[in-house]
Amino acid sequence: MLKSPNVVSKSKFRVMVGFVLVVQLVLTYRFFQLQIMDFELYSQRAESNRIRAMSIPAPRGLILDRHGEIIVDNYPTYILYGIGAEIRDKQKNYNVISRTTGIDTTILKKNYKNYYRNRFLPTRLAKDLTITQLSRLEEAKNDLSGVVYKQFPERIYNPKIRASHVLGYLKEMDSEMVQKMVSESDYEFGDLIGWSGLEQKYETKLKGEKGVDYYQVDAYGREAGKLEGEDNILPYPGNDISTTLDVSLQQLLEFELKDKKGVGIVSNPKTGGILAYVSAPDYKPDLFTGLISNTDWQEVLADPDRPLLNRVANGTYPPGSIFKMVVVIALLEKKLISPQMEVFCTGSYEFYDRTFGCWDENGHGKIDLEQAIVQSCDVFFYQAIQKIKLNDLAEFGKVFGIGFETKIDLPAEMKGRMPDREFMNRLYGRWGWSKGALLNISIGQGEILVTPLQMVAYTNILATRGNTQPLHMVQANDGWIEKPKISQRSWSLIQKYMGKVITDPKGTGKRSDPKIPGLKLSGKTGTAENPHGEPHAWFIAYGEKDGEMISVVIMVENGGHGGEVAAPIARKVFKHYFDDSKSKLAKT
Amino acid sequence: MFLDLRKKIIESPLGILFSVFGLVSLGLLTLYSITVMQGQASPNAFSKQLLFLVPAFLLMITMVLLPRRLIHKYIFVVYGLIIIGVILPFFGQKVAGTYRWINIGLPFGLQPSEIAKWIIVIALARYLSDRNLQMKNFGSNIVPFVIALIPTIIVLNQPDLGTAFVMMAPIIPMLFWVGARPFHLFLIVAPLFSILAASNVFVFSIWAGIMAIVIFMARPKLWHAIGLFFVNIFLGLILPWMWNSLRPFQQNRVLTFINPELDPLGAGYQIIQSKTALGSGGFLGKGWGQGTQTHLKFLPVQESDFIVSVIGEELGFLTLLAMLILFSWLIIRMIRLAQNASDRFSGLVLIGISTIFLTHVFVNCAMTAGMIPVKGLPLPFVSYGGSFLFSCFMMIGLVLNFGREELD
């Protein structure tokens, strides 16, 4: 065979055999150590027969506002467990628990079945026990076997505000969710996991690391002290997150929108940080903790006003006249109109066989570009829009973020819709739509849909001429938004017009002015027709004083005229921010 | 023809079968105790293992009769096939969170990585027994690593850290056997030690000292020596820095991969239970079928990975000692056969296989005794499991075959 001869020295053989013997001796010594030297320790441990391992929950990180005020905190409650291998006579134990705490035995049985993993791990019987229930249970301890409890931090919320759509809630892991987890060791049955809002988005940061308690248990299922030779593993608390929210502003906006359907958002245009985020109606943030009863939950589910819907990010609405700045910028940039263009408004406009009405049936008379924005004249736009192609308009709509996610650091947001040629062809067929559709779109009606959150980003771009950052709730998403390619002349004109909306005697937004010296406001009202009844009232605005700037977006569903309903709410915000609380200035 | 085959079998070193027989019996006794004696109906681990022994024995005979010349000729083809074999499970379903098994319609899954272990050994032996090979060259030490690394990396992704370890283990002894310079072997292991020692400044300083002495004694060229020393120091220094640049959850994932005990409710609990079972067994054990810890099902894989804790609890230290002696005898016998082998190829195959057995024994026992993290390697001949039993008997078949005096 084509092989090398086998020449192996005696010493190689000795080294190999020596190595085998060393390995075997190490093992032998280890077995000797465990079985002979430590025999006493382990046989005692085996005698007591049960070693209990309980996970110690890690306190979740807190959620703070921009000034460090706590919005979401932890609150200690107690969870009751049964250990299958240690409970003798389950029914009897259930009866004792039921008698002392008032929890129905069927619930105990159901929980035991749900959370059961194996006979030696503690299985949850009931949660959210109060100290009173616990102390009564403690009195009856002699009648119980294999029943233990441990402290468990539950979420508790700042009573001043709700902010439920921002904060989100926690959900208890069930077996299906545990199996879907990538790393199963991170979660177990009954653990809480962030399921929406900031709690979900920042789950890995907030979560912390669980610890483990090992202890010995005697034959009666009672704790018999620490397990010798095994150290407990301490839990590692989660990290706090500092949001950009301002509790006092949030509180004010929640109050103003109480009993209404709609949204209110305040942000810092220079940084993109959100100071207040209200979607009304909402629900109590503790709805999903165990502290609330089932009937409340049913009530929220059955509410026709849909409090669970996050209107800010997931509600899509026609923008109405607040869209007109996009139209003006598109027309100016494409050099299709000049600021001197004049139109005579009679209150309606004939376009072939259709009549398009202005919101003011009496007509605005002779009107130029500035007054078309200031008085929000629709007829002006019906005429001007005919000069531009739909795709050119859509291009500018997209520049302002319509049809795209804002990428705010909250889970799940809608994209809205900026219709273009392709979209209209798909919807109506190649010949199924005409320029008439464009007339509708020019005043923010028809196929165009936006989320209020997109309008915040839009307002911030208008306020800063595009020098703004993406919207965020916690840390600044690094970098700036892609700056729109728009001339300084167009920016200056549009900002001037928006200023006039507030200051002009005929301006539709004048009711938003709190008349604070030095405060310069700019804005635009919108009144969006919709098939559900009264129009939606829109108002977007930004105000600047001494270099401090905030932007406000208000929308009241079926509220009526933007200038009459939404603008006064914005006035309260401006007044509060620039007048009442000079010290609380936005820094992030 | 028939007589020829018979002669082949009879001339094999059949003595090693005594220890195999002893170990299989110990395994069956233990399986009987934790299944039949606990009232488990058939089919259970005991009856299935008994059944597996029939094909295992036939496979062993097949391996004895395979002409060595054919093995030598075709091993690289087989090596290529087995690489495909270890990739295949990735296209199937995940079983228990890993891609280890192929389902081909049999009542049990096949685990190609079990066979891959010794196919790598034969491939290495073929490469290292080449006449033209110059072991004085450091480069000749690198190719074997490539041969073993390819399947190892695939198996690591299954993920199966234990098997991957077993695949790499035979390289060093085989290189040693074939005459690699001890200094070269040191070069190969040094970076590993540098990384391991990096976590502790004191240990690392000692290691740096040892390294300096060894390099000095080997007297390589000066710039080689300096380069070598600083590459190792650099490795040790950069590792903590890289570690700290990982996010905490990434660190955790790495740690849990290396040491599942960090999942304290899972593997950590198992180790405590396993130590308690072993320790409470004492010198003579609690008696066959009398183990309390193991029968309370504290240990989820007591019939395979943790079978040593059952033996230790019920039959005591004395039996474990006897078991270790049987294993030592088996392995030393293989090394003896390797020394007396008629050619280098045979000798290397024998050395490689003996290393596989030794690694299994050490990792399994050390894990059960809580010395090293839980790795999930079964104990040869004793643990329950079809694929592994077949693989072990095939290796014994190879040992019988290559240990035979053959002058052709």
Notes on the structure:
- The complex is a heterodimer of chains A (588) and B (408).
- Chain A folds into 2 domains: 52-207 and 223-242, Penicillin-binding protein 2a (Domain 2) (Alpha-Beta Complex), CATH 3.90.1310.10; 276-521 and 540-580, DD-peptidase/beta-lactamase superfamily (Beta-lactamase, 3-Layer(aba) Sandwich).
- Chain A is an alpha+beta fold and 588 residues long.
- In chain A, strands 2, 3, 4, 5 and 10 form a 5-stranded mixed β-sheet that branches.
- The model of chain A is unreliable at 583-588 (pLDDT under 50).
- In chain A, helix 3 packs across helix 5 (131-139), helix 10 (247-256) packs antiparallel against helix 21 (562-580) and helix 13 (324-333) crosses helix 16 (390-399).
- Chain A has 21 helices and 19 strands.
- Chain B is mostly helical and 408 residues long.
- Chain B has one domain.
- In chain B, 70% of the residues lie in helices and 0% in strands.
- In chain B, helix 5 packs parallel to helix 8, helix 8 (171-178) packs antiparallel against helix 16 (344-368) and helix 9 runs parallel beside helix 11 (222-245).
- Chain B is globular, with a radius of gyration of 23 Å.
- The mean pLDDT of chain B is 82.
- The chains are: A alpha+beta (588), B mainly alpha (408).
- At the A-B interface, helix 1, helix 2 and strand 1 of A face helix 4, helix 8, helix 12, helix 13 and helix 15 of B.
Oligomeric form of this entry? heterodimer
**Which stretches of chain B of 5+ consecutive residues score pLDDT under 50?**
none
Question: Which percent range describes the beta-strand content of chain B?
Answer: under 5%
**If helices are DSSP runs of H or I spanning 4 or more residues, what is the number of helices of chain A?**
21
Overall CATH class of the largest domain in chain A = Alpha Beta
Largest interface: A-B, 55 and 70 residues
- The span between the termini of chain B is 17 Å
Specify the overall morphology of chain B.
Answer: globular
Distance between the termini of chain A: 80 Å
The tally of helices of chain B reads 17
User: Can you tell me the CATH superfamily of the largest domain in chain A?
Assistant: DD-peptidase/beta-lactamase superfamily
**CA-atom Rg of chain B in angstroms:** 23 Å
Secondary-structure class of chain B? mainly alpha
SS strand fraction of chain A = 15-25%
- How many domains make up the 3D coordinates of chain B? 1
Largest sheet of chain A: 5 strands, mixed
The average pLDDT value of chain A, as a whole number, equals 87
Q: Element order, helices and strands of chain B? A: HHHHHHHHHHHHHHHHH
